[in-house]
Amino acid sequence: MPVSRLLIANRGEIAVRIIRAARELGLQTVQVASRADLDMPAARLADQVVEIGPPQAARSYLSIEAILRAAETSGADAVHPGYGFLAENAAFAEAVERAGLTFVGPRPETIRLMGDKAAARAAAAAAGVPTVPGTEGRLADSAAAREAAARIGFPLMIKAAAGGGGRGIRIAEDMAGLETLLQQAAAEAGASFGDAGLYLERCVPRARHVEVQVLGDGESVIHLFERECSVQRRRQKLWEEAPAACLDDATRAALCDSAVRLAQSVGYRGAGTLEYLFDAASGDFYFIEMNTRIQVEHPVTEAITGIDLVREMIRIAAGERLRWRQDAITRRFHAIECRINAEDPARGFLPSPGRIESLRLPGGPGVRFDAAIEAGGIVPPFYDSLLGKLIVWDETRDAALRRMARALAELEIGGVATTIPLGRALAAAPDIQAGRVHTTWLESWLAQHDFTPEREAEPIP
Amino acid sequence: MSVKTVAAPLPGTFYRSPAPGEPPFKTEGSTVAPGETVGLIEVMKTFTQVAAEEAGKLVRFLVENEDAVMAGQPLYELES
């Protein structure tokens, strides 16, 4: 279905990013905005702005009804959901299609399938993609647990079937410790969740987070190589790179091929990311989940492949076929993204909304700053704290690290506290420079280092 | 006896109960002690407790549950 007027059902930097892609494709843009966002950069860039409700996301950016009404009154014929909010809500994608509009993303059934962890795991297994070894369903008794443990191998995690968010997890180092921990875990799960059911999963110590970018048109799927996002705090990525320096060429090829196989098996349409844990010691990788949307860190992939992912996902939604075969996708350079959040790393990452009093942007070769902030603009307290993303690329990883340090030294944001001082410290950290990171590295590093920013953040007025 | 208004310490979304469907921390007319939680303010997906600074009777709330509040905006009236 041809697309001529695209509604952006998001805010902040990704809304600006989508407007830029739409404009290059010659499309009209309609930006929805809560009452707190009427003056945001995306609202001023778009051809039309539609107010969709009060500041709280539940009544604005998460309201399917409000967004569909905005599409109707503005005459939009397509909707781009961005990331977060309704981007992976199958009911939203369905409602958009039922209203006769084009959804820029996968088919609703794909969103639903990949959103169900057990179903996604089963789809991976069917496509021959490795998942973290573990038990399917609840453990019947301790004999079954011992048998499964012998198959899975140690160390392994004992997880509560009704748990989530990392709660109720115990790590068993060997068979001797398993029995005691099972009893403790069952008692705790019963008390905490009213359900003593347990399952086992292999523990991948010092796992690295790698992910593969794919593009599909509903029939063919290609990959655009991988990213590494091991530098995380509380499961929030802060620093992402492409390619993943921890992979050798053979592992990279196997990883990317597995992602294409899985995406192909579900007839994937649009841009998507398959996330994996990578065990650098053994060289094994395990699929964990698929994100059926554009991701925050997509620019590092754009930097090494030269392909505009947001523009391509709009073309695909409009019915175009993929414009490349796999062998036409090449990569060069090393790219790094550092997220800039309105949080104070010197004060426990305290959120810091407020007015941007001053802004000095980085520039020069190999530097891109995707943001939605301006001097004098307000960072509202109602949404996530991402202010922008600094992306750099250069010939080698070492050169890209130096360029990141240089660009972070140029970037200054006054009026709100930001994670810029953390980014500067990361660029200089020996573990980052040597690539010795894993998914819990940053939390240990923050705990062990007396984190004092080189420059004090501006006090909150 | 005097009635004073207590202002929101932070901007964000104000909640009167710990979770949706649960009873509020405080109802209008109830007494509060220093340090007691009166509500929560969500700032950038982080929840901060709004604790009473002094003792008294909570006369009435000046904002609704889940209202957007600005820092310094009157939250409730306290009689002491």
List its salient traits:
heterodimer, A: 461 residues, alpha+beta, Rossmann fold, Dna Ligase, domain 1, D-amino Acid Aminotransferase, Chain A, domain 1, 3 domains, 8-stranded antiparallel sheet, 5-stranded parallel sheet, 15 helices, 22 strands, 34% helix, disordered C terminus, B: 80 residues, mainly beta, OB fold (Dihydrolipoamide Acetyltransferase, E2P), 4-stranded antiparallel sheet, 0% helix, globular
β-strand amount of chain A: 25-35%
Structural class of chain A: alpha+beta
Level-1 CATH class name of chain B:
Mainly Beta
Estimate percent helicity of chain A.
25-40%
In the residues of chain A, how many domains can be counted?
3
What is the third-level CATH name, the topology of chain B?
Answer: OB fold (Dihydrolipoamide Acetyltransferase, E2P)
- Which sequence of SSEs, written as H and E, runs from N to C of chain B? EEEEEEEE
> How many β strands of chain A by DSSP?
22
Largest interface: A-B, 16 and 11 residues
Q: Helix- and strand-based class of chain B?
A: mainly beta
The major beta sheet of chain B can be summarized as: 4 strands, antiparallel
For the biggest sheet of chain A, the summary is:
8 strands, antiparallel
| CATH architecture tag of the largest domain in chain A | 2-Layer Sandwich
Shape annotation of chain A: globular
> In one word, what is the shape of chain B?
globular
